């Protein structure tokens, strides 16, 4: 889905609030949420692709204003409700207030019908895929051409794995793009490397 | 009546919401408290940047290990007793040189090799870093205090799959010959992410 989470290359954001001693956590509840979602993954209540997708399905206004661990909490609760472990009503009764959850999921999809094996140095193009469900293709590479630098081991295919759809594991390719090709005349010169699933790629002349 | 509606419409605080989901899971017989305690320990005391620092220090002092690390990161860190979660099936170690600066990000969420680098710092997860570092890398790094000479090529790595990345910083020349333990002490988390030099 072309969701609010897909931030790469979006303009209008200010300076990074950087400090060399920045911490991962700022409050005890954040550590607790991080542990609770990891626990749920460990128990097999949901997998990481379902977890990421439930964050992406949050209402865009909520997504942008929620902290990182509030997004984590929302995904955890949404999936526990969707898996029938708890109802939203019970959560709201226990929380003594509204408990906003993520929006509904759209259908997922399985691997591309034909997938090609690539080698380092091959020129590849990211297909013009528009899907309503989960996808791990940042929009800034859609339709763009780059060069393969390496191949990974096979992973569960996120577009299927986030939706309980059957699919084969497939490798990702680290593809090197020129920032100039991604945002012509509108980017600092750099090489941008993205891990792209095999199903998203086709050979380029 | 309207006053009561207002009360019902209030969104619970995040703490109340965390308590709600935790108690709901607990009540279903899941051993939540024990698991939370164990995972909190891992997140705060076991998954720390000192792990990555030890890997870097070994790579600086042992050329054969460095070669193995660059060829197969996951197998090489296991030699030092470090592991990654099952779903992180691949670790790519990115070698900085005098002319190449590698930088890690995750534009779609905030993935990292957290067992080596530690759970990501707040700025890594913020919208600003995620939106801008892929497109305005040199500007963003400069704003963060890393002003790279124009001849240094920037390579940004967007963590879109479950492959994980760690930067192997350049060893400062004045530390050549130092013992491994002392070297590990100069490697910072932000050096492993690639937004700071050592």
Structure write-up:
The complex is a heterodimer of chains A (205) and B (198). By secondary structure, chain A is an alpha+beta fold. Chain A folds into two domains: 1-102, Nitrile hydratase, beta subunit (Cyclin A, domain 1, Orthogonal Bundle); 123-203, SH3 type barrels (Roll), CATH 2.30.30. Chain A has seven helices and five strands. Chain A has a five-stranded antiparallel β-sheet. In chain A, helix 1 (28-43) runs parallel beside helix 4. Chain B has 198 residues and is an alpha/beta fold. Chain B has two domains: 2-45, no CATH class; 48-193, Nitrile hydratase alpha /Thiocyanate hydrolase gamma (Nitrile Hydratase, Chain A, Alpha-Beta Complex). Chain B contains twelve helices and four strands, in the order H-H-H-H-H-H-E-E-H-H-H-H-E-E-H-H. Chain B has helices spanning 2-9, 14-27, 32-46, 49-61, 63-71, 73-79, 114-117, 122-125, 127-132, 137-143, 180-184, 189-193; strands at residues 90-95, 100-105, 153-158, 163-168. In chain B, the strands form two sheets. Chain B has a two-stranded parallel sheet with strand order 1-4. A two-stranded parallel ribbon of chain B has the order 2-3. Chain B is globular and about 55 Å long. The N and C termini of chain B lie far apart (63 Å). The chains are: A alpha+beta (205), B alpha/beta (198). At the A-B interface, helix 1, helix 2, helix 4, helix 5 and strand 2 of A face helix 2, helix 3, helix 8, helix 9 and helix 10 of B.
**Biggest beta-sheet profile of chain A:** 5 strands, antiparallel
CATH topology of the largest domain in chain B: Nitrile Hydratase, Chain A
Q: In the CATH hierarchy, what is the architecture of the largest domain in chain B at level 2?
A: Alpha-Beta Complex
Q: How much β-strand is present in the residues of chain B?
A: 5-15%
Q: CATH fold name of the largest domain in chain A, please?
A: Cyclin A, domain 1
CA-to-CA gap between the ends of chain A?
Answer: 28 Å
Class of secondary structure makeup of chain B: alpha/beta
Rounded to the nearest angstrom, the radius of gyration of chain B is 21 Å
Number of strands of chain B: 4
Output the helix-strand order of chain A. Answer: HHHHHEEHEHEE
Mean pLDDT of chain B: 94
pLDDT below 50 for ≥5 consecutive residues: which ranges of chain B?
none
The number of strands of chain A is 5
Largest interface: A-B, 86 and 75 residues
